[in-house]
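Batch manifest, entry 17 of 40.
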Amino acid sequence: MRRFASDTFGTRDIAFRFSAPDADPDADMDVRLGANIRREVFLIFKESVNNLVKHSGCTEAEIEFQMTDGSLLLRVSDNGKGFDASRDSDGHGLVSMRERATSIGGQFDLVSAPAEARS
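Output type: structure tokens
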């Protein structure tokens, strides 16, 4: 995930921070992810990063990945122009991400507003 983000953001000169747990094979993990869940989470992540690069006009992005209390959290945010999340989109990306999250028992939340700068 870190490598994909670095490659994608780097081509657009978007500064980013990536926060994820250290990979420690001896540590007890709170969440064990099967292959299907790992795949769906990665595809949601990938679509989020691609949408951010294509549409946000941002100069900074932040990716947070946490596994705690039997749950997994993936948060992607940026300082871009935002959009009206209540309006229908011509694309399928947001619908696909929501469907993927639901299919693995997850939740997909989107927070945005036109011209809303986030840090």
